[in-house]
Design goal:
It contains 13 helices and 9 strands. By secondary structure, the protein is α/β, with parallel strands linked by helices. It has a single domain, classed as Aldolase class I (TIM Barrel), CATH 3.20.20.70. An 8-stranded parallel barrel has the order 2-3-4-5-6-7-8-9, surrounded by 9 helices. Helix 6 links the parallel strand 5 and strand 6. The longest helix has 23 residues. The protein is globular. Bound molecules: glyceraldehyde-3-phosphate (G3H), 1,3-dihydroxyacetonephosphate (13P) and zinc ion.
């Protein structure tokens, strides 16, 4: 049981048909729901913290909660910074004890992204911390209809190879049609798998990362809407597409929206059905249980990662 990097997790997953779940955490109940699921499925996992999460909960609380989760469950957990926007936040997280950081230079020009990533890689590697970077822009496939516009938006395989070679980054987030949040596709869900396969062919030893990979489970969307919510038309990445991605180099699958939906759906239901209750434990508890059920389903049936420990 330890705070570990993702190096060994990815080395094992790289040429197998499973992926490691990377779940965004913001408070104690979310962390507990996720780690209880991972413990029940006997799997490794990544807990990731965004800049927004650091602002909401304060970094020290999140690090201590993750340490407590490791002590409580005996799991190996990688603590990762999600979407670090510059060197400073990556450095802070390395210094705070994170075992993995993401430097997200994807909105910058290619050469600038290389420069930023290289600087973080040098600092982090020196301290035994691994680095994820991103190339390409997360956008739904309907925003990039032809080859030219896809090349301008999605990850260009040849650039991915050059980027990894020049930066020495440990893993690479790719843009193939997923996007963050609960509204991923206006029409039918589709991902650019030809592009993913080409990228994996050119950099077969680099673990790939799929951001925006929530499946937006209809069960929770419907429950939110039934109990006073208003999230019509929410649509995620179908489960079989996540399984396909895991067969073509994707080792890390990022999930936040599904956690938010599961917790909110259950809390909405509880408060609607029991309007006289006002003890937060009474509704945060079921919210935590919903996260556990959802994450167990994800690990077992979508990521295919049960019993890989
Ligand atoms: O990549 C986005 C994640 O869902 C984190 O979201 O910045 O609201 O914490 P956040
Ligand atoms: P979702 O919004 O699909 O959960 O993606 C989360 C993510 O990519 C965090 O980096
Ligand atoms: Zn992301």
């Amino acid at each position: 049981m330890a705070l570990v990097t993702s190096k060994e997790m990815f080395a094992k997953a790289l040429n197998k048909d499973y992926a490691i779940g990377a779940f965004n955490v913001n408070n104690m109940e979310i962390i507990q729901g996720i780690v209880q699921a991972a413990q029940a499925e006997n799997t490794e996992l990544i807990l990731q913290v965004s800049a927004g999460a650091r602002k909401y909960a304060k970094p020290a609380y999140l690090v201590k909660l993750v340490e407590a989760a490791i002590e409580d469950t005996g799991l190996d957990i990688c603590l990762h910074l999600d979407h670090g926007e510059d060197f400073d936040i990556c450095k802070k997280c390395v210094d705070d004890g994170f075992t993995s950081v993401m430097i997200d230079g994807s909105k910058h020009p290619f050469e600038e992204n290389i420069k930023m990533t290289k600087e973080v890689v040098e600092y982090a590697h020196d301290k035994g911390v691994v680095v994820e970077a991103e190339l390409g822009k997360l956008a739904g496939i309907e925003d990039a209809v032809n080859v030219a516009s896809r090349d301008a938006t999605f990850t260009v395989p040849e650039e991915a190879a050059e980027f990894v070679d020049k930066t020495g980054v440990d893993s690479l987030a790719v843009a193939i049609g997923t996007s963050h949040g609960a509204y991923k596709f206006k029409g039918e869900p589709a991902l650019d798998f030809d592009r993913l396969i080409k990228i994996h062919e050119l950099i077969p030893d680099t673990p790939l990362v799929l951001h925006g990979a929530s499946t937006v489970l209809p069960e929770f969307v419907d429950m939110c809407n039934q109990y006073g919510g208003n999230i019509p038309g929410a649509k995620g990445v179908p489960e079989d597409m996540i399984r396909t991605a895991a067969k073509h180099g994707v080792c890390k699958v990022n999930i936040d929206t599904d956690l938010r939906l599961a917790m909110t759906a259950e809390i909405r239901r509880f408060l609607t059905e029991q309007p006289a209750e006002f003890d937060p434990r009474k509704y945060l508890g079921p919210g935590r249980d919903a996260i556990q059920r959802m994450v167990q389903h994800k690990i077992k049936d979508v990521l295919n990662a049960s019993n890989i420990k």
